[in-house]
Amino acid sequence: MTTYGITGATGQLGSLAAELLLQKVAPADVVLLSRSPEKIAAAGATTRAADFDSPEGLVEAFTGIDELLLVSTDVVGSRLEGQRAAVEAATKAGVRRVLYTSLPDPSEDNPALVTPDHLGTEQALRDSGLRWTFLRNNLYADMQSDVVAQAAASGTYVTNTGEAGAAYVTRADCAAAAVGALLSTDVDDTALDVTGPTSVTAADIAALAAERRGEPVQVVQVDDAAYVAGLEQAGLPTFVAELLASFGTAIREGRLAEVTSAVEDLTGRPATPLATALA
Question: pTM value?
Answer without folding.
Answer: 0.96
